[in-house]
C-alpha cells in the first residue's frame, strides 16, 4: 500500500488533527494562513486557532493575477504558468511560516488550500444551456504538498458543483459545525470582496441551514479607492463617510437580475466590477461624481444588498426563528460605514463579530477550509437534507507529498 494512504488512514482516526487552512479570496490582498487544532468532526468539531497570519501580495503579484482574474479573455500561457506559480508560492509561504512559528512540518497533518478563484460562472450567470455551473480555482495543490512535505487537500469547489451546487458558498459547512449554538438563531455574515451569509437555526436542524452570496462586499469599494487614492481600500470607510449618497445611482446599481433571483445564488467580480458601475452611472446620468460621493453610494449599495438578502431569507423561515444574532467577519467588518449601515437597515437583529465566538473574523475563511479538509478525511457524512446549495458531500482533492 502507498504509505501515504496508510498515513491518511491513521490521521483519520486521531482524536485531534493539526490542519493548516489557506484562503486567498476575491480581494487579492494576500494569503491567509491559519494553523488549526481540530478535534472531532461533523457537529462535534471544535477548533483552536494556534497561529494566524496574512502574507500580503506585492503589487507585481497582484497585477499578474489581475491579468487573468474574472476576465472572459486571457493569455492562456499566463494562466497556465500562474497555476503552478501560485501553488508553489503558497507552499513556500506555508513552509516559511512553519519555520518562523517553530512548528515542524511533521507535526502538521494536512494543508487545506482554497487556491485562487480566477473565474466563477454559475449557470444563472453564463446562461448557456449546454453547460453546467462552473468555477475555476488555480494554484495546484501538488506544489503545496511538495514544498511543505504535508499532504494537501485542494480544489474544494468541484464536488459541490458535481452534486448540483454552484461551487459556493462553502463556508456553510464549517459555519454549521463550528458556530451553531442551540437556542440562538445565528447569521454568519462574511464581507470579503463578495459578501455571503449562512443561516444557522437555534434548533440545530441541519436541513434548515441555509446559505447564499448577497452581491458585492468590498470589491467595488476597493476598485474605486485604488483608482482615486492609490491605496488598496477605503480605510475605515473614511471616503464614504465624507460623501453624500446619490439616490439615482443607488437605484441603478440595485437594478440587476441577480438581486431578484431565488436563493441560493452566487456571484463574483465577473458581474460586479467597474464596468457595472460605469453602466449604472450612465443609466442614472451620474457620471463624474466626486470620489467621496461615489464611495458613499457604493458602500450603501453593498450594505443595502446585504441587508435586503438577509431580510428576504429570514422571511422564508418560521416566524419563531426570525430573531437572529448576526456575526460579522471578513475585511468589510473593519469598515464602520458598511457595518453601521447594515445595522441600521436590520433593526430587528442584534450584531456582533465572529471574534466573540473565538475565531477572528479575518481568519474565519481559512479556518473553515481546514474544517472542510478535516471533514473530508475524518467526517462521517452529515446530512443537510435536500436543501439546495448545501449538497451532503465531502470536498477536496488529495495531493501526496511524493
Ligand atoms: N480598516 C479597513 N477599512 C475598510 N475596509 C477594510 C479594512 N480592513 C480590511 N478591509 C477590506 O477588507 C478587504 C479584505 O477582506 P477579505 O480578506 O475578507 O477578502 P477576501 O477573503 O479576499 O474576499 P472573499 O471572501 O470575497 O473571497 C480589503 O480589500 C478591504 O476592502
Ligand atoms: C467562487 C468563489 O471563490 N467564491 C467566493 C467569493 O468570496 C465570497 C463569496 O464569493 C463566496 O461564495 C466564496 O468564498 C467563500 C469562502 C465560500 O465559499 O464560502
UniProtKB/TrEMBL annotation:
This is Anhydro-N-acetylmuramic acid kinase. Catalyzes the specific phosphorylation of 1,6-anhydro-N-acetylmuramic acid (anhMurNAc) with the simultaneous cleavage of the 1,6-anhydro ring, generating MurNAc-6-P. Is required for the utilization of anhMurNAc either imported from the medium or derived from its own cell wall murein, and thus plays a role in cell wall recycling. Pathway: Amino-sugar metabolism; 1,6-anhydro-N-acetylmuramate degradation; Cell wall biogenesis; peptidoglycan recycling. GO terms for molecular function: kinase activity. Its EC number is 2.7.1.170. It holds the Pfam family AnmK. It comes from the Bacteria. Belongs to the anhydro-N-acetylmuramic acid kinase family. It is an enzyme of class 2 (transferase). It comes from Fibrella forsythiae. NCBIfam families: PRK09585.3-4 (NF007149). The keyword rRNA-binding does not apply. The keyword Transferase applies. CDD domains: ASKHA_NBD_ANMK. HAMAP family: AnhMurNAc_kinase. It catalyses: 1,6-anhydro-N-acetyl-beta-muramate + ATP + H2O = N-acetyl-D-muramate 6-phosphate + ADP + H(+). ATP binds at residues 25-32. Keywords: ATP-binding, Carbohydrate metabolism, Kinase, Nucleotide-binding, Transferase.
Amino acid at each position: 500500500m502507498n504509505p501515504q494512504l496508510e498515513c491518511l488512514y491513521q490521521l483519520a482516526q486521531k482524536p485531534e488533527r493539526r490542519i493548516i487552512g489557506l484562503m486567498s479570496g476575491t480581494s487579492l490582498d494576500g494569503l491567509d494562513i491559519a494553523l488549526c487544532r481540530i478535534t472531532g468532526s461533523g457537529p462535534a468539531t471544535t477548533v483552536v486557532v494556534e497561529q494566524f497570519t496574512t502574507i500580503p501580495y506585492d503589487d507585481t503579484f497582484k497585477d499578474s493575477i489581475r491579468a487573468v482574474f474574472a476576465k472572459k479573455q486571457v493569455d492562456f500561457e499566463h494562466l497556465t504558468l500562474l497555476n503552478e506559480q501560485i501553488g508553489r508560492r503558497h507552499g513556500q509561504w506555508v513552509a516559511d511560516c512553519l519555520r518562523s512559528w517553530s512548528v515542524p512540518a511533521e507535526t502538521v497533518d494536512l494543508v487545506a488550500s482554497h487556491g485562487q478563484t480566477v473565474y466563477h460562472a454559475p449557470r444563472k450567470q453564463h446562461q448557456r444551456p449546454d453547460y453546467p455551473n462552473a468555477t475555476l480555482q488555480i494554484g495546484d495543490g501538488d506544489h503545496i504538498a511538495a514544498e511543505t512535505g504535508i499532504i494537501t487537500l485542494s480544489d474544494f469547489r468541484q464536488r459541490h458543483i458535481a452534486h448540483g451546487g454552484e461551487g459556493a458558498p462553502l463556508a456553510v459547512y464549517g459555519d454549521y459545525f463550528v458556530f451553531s449554538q442551540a437556542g440562538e438563531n445565528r447569521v454568519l455574515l462574511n464581507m470579503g470582496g463578495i459578501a455571503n451569509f449562512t443561516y444557522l437555526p437555534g434548533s440545530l436542524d441541519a436541513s434548515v441551514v441555509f446559505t447564499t452570496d448577497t452581491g458585492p462586499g468590498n470589491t467595488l469599494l476597493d476598485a474605486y479607492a485604488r483608482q482615486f487614492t492609490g491605496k488598496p481600500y477605503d480605510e475605515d470607510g473614511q471616503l464614504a463617510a465624507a460623501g453624500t449618497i446619490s439616490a439615482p445611482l443607488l437605484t441603478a446599481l440595485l437594478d440587476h437580475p441577480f438581486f431578484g433571483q431565488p436563493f441560493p445564488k452566487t456571484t463574483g467580480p465577473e458581474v460586479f466590477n467597474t464596468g457595472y458601475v460605469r453602466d449604472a452611472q450612465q443609466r442614472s446620468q451620474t457620471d463624474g461624481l466626486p470620489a467621496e460621493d461615489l464611495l458613499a453610494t457604493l458602500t450603501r449599495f453593498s450594505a443595502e444588498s446585504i441587508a435586503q438578502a438577509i431580510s428576504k431569507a429570514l422571511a422564508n423561515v418560521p416566524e419563531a426563528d426570525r430573531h437572529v444574532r448576526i456575526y460579522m467577519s471578513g475585511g468589510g467588518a473593519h469598515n464602520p460605514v458598511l457595518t453601521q449601515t447594515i445595522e441600521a437597515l436590520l433593526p430587528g437583529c442584534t450584531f456582533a463579530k465572529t471574534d466573540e465566538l473565538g475565531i477572528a473574523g479575518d481568519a474565519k475563511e481559512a479556518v473553515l477550509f481546514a474544517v472542510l479538509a478535516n471533514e473530508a478525511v475524518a467526517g462521517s457524512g452529515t446530512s443537510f437534507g435536500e436543501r439546495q446549495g448545501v449538497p451532503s458531500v465531502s470536498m477536496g482533492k488529495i495531493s501526496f507529498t511524493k
